[in-house]
Every structure is written in structure tokens, then in C-alpha cells.
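Hi W., the NAP complex you wanted:
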Amino acid sequence: MLNDKAAVITGASRGIGEAAAIELAAQGVSVVLAARSKNSLDAIVSRIEDNGGQACAIECDVSEYDEVATAVTECVAEYGKIDILVNNAGLIDPISRIEDSDPLQWANVVDVNLKGVYHGLRAALPLMKAQGSGVIVNISSGAATGALEGWSHYCATKAGVLSLTKCAHKEVGDLGIRVVGMSPGTVATDMQVSIKASGINPVSQLEASDHIPPEWPAKAIAWLCTDAAHEYAGTDFSIKTDEGRRLVGLI
Ligand code: NAP
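Structure:
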């Protein structure tokens, strides 16, 4: 159903972004993988191409608007359009209580998690408006609506991302463009390794076996790119619930 679409995925060098790139490519999407670790991106592109998919890699720091805009432009140059943007890049380090936090590092999380998503929206929306179609999936978290000690930077930025999803939907939802969030629950990636090492709040007490594999949110991202997901536009779609998992085909 996604055959012949073209997508940009930020934070595609590992974890959920890597799995999303592989899933979308397997469903026939030509994918632009964007992140800072170019060597990792190149290795993933090779794997996708070995499996018959189309992919390319671009070094991109999402906290820099021009670099995100270049990734979007690259998608149009390579594949003629941009149908899908997955705003996935994010970080949680360093985890610390507010009174111990480093103001510059706290602000860096805002630059990546919040401004990075705004940069993606700003770069892609004019092109999608001109096309009259497009899907933007913003990777959210339960932290968007819940508070956890040691995660003030993360909770505040994910709340901001949910607000961006809602605002963007108000602006372009009637123009054939779906902006939707995706809240995966806890996923077995490097981010959860950092969280466990922090020992700060109940999430850090979870075991690796409590987390879902990154292939699950990847399937949810792909499903959100289909018209079946239309009614979830402007909201955070969750795969923590049985209903969400059933819709995506996970159970
Ligand atoms: P991860 O394994 O740590 O991967 C994070 C990705 O983000 C990497 O590809 C990294 O690539 C990229 N990234 C970080 N800073 C970047 C920057 N400045 N510019 C471009 N890319 C950057 O984490 P993950 O668990 O897959 O997380 C992916 C998304 O899911 C995040 O938005 C996270 O908040 C969200 N999420 C995760 C969980 C979970 O339990 N894991 C739960 C809810 C939501 P480079 O280092 O190569 O740049």
C-alpha cells in the first residue's frame, strides 16, 4: 500500500528509526535515512539495497534547520517528492534532577527533541502542501502527558512535540496532510540502556524483557502512513493498548 512513496526518517542510524527505515523500505518506500552517524546509516542503506529496497543516507543534525531542510530536499532530488516524514530523532541524556542539571545540556535536548521536530515540519510542509498530500509521524512518548523525576527535559520536550502535532494538524489537516504522533511504550533500544543506568525513576527499574522490540513501533509508523490511520490525525496514537496493537497488526 506504500509502494512508490518517498520518505525521510530522522534518527535512522539505530533503534526505532533504523527499524522504521527497514520496515518502510520493505513496504516499497524509497527512504532517506538522516542522522549524525553516517557510517551507521551507510551500513543500513546497504542492507536495504541488498534486500531490493531503495535508500540513501544523509548526515544530519536535526538541531540545525538547514541540515533538516537539506535532508528533505535530498528526498525530492532523489525520488521526486516527499510523501512521508518520520520525525524520530531524539535523546534523553543526560538524565538528572532539575537542581543538578546542566543548563546547556538541558537546552540541547530542547534543540533536538522539540526544535528538531519543528525543523522537520517547517521544511516538509510547504512541499507537502504543494503536492496536496503527505504524512508526518512525530515520535512521541508517554512522557508527553506524564511526569517522571529526572526527565524534566524529556517530558517537557515530548509535551511540546504533542502540541506541535496538534497545531500542525489544525493548520494542514484539511489540505490532505496527516500529522500524527506515535507513542510506543518502552522499546528495547540504546535509550533504554541509558535509562536503566540512571537508576532514577521507575522506568529505570524495568528489565530488558519488559520492552517491546523496535520492529513494533516501526510497524506502527508504517500503518500510520496508510489511510486507515486517518482518524488519528492530530493525536498521539499509542501501541501500549491492545486496540492500538490490533489495528497495527501486532496482535
Ligand atoms: P536511540 O536508539 O538512542 O536512537 C536515537 C536516534 O536519534 C539515533 O539514530 C541518533 O542518531 C538520533 N539522534 C540523536 N540526536 C540527533 C541529532 N542531533 N540529529 C539527528 N539525529 C539524532 O533511541 P530510540 O529509542 O530509537 O528513540 C527514537 C525515538 O523514540 C526518540 O524520539 C525517543 O524519544 C522515542 N521514544 C523511545 C522510547 C524507548 O523506550 N526507546 C519510548 C518512547 C519514545 P545519531 O546519534 O547518529 O545522530
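The radius of gyration is 17 Å.

W.
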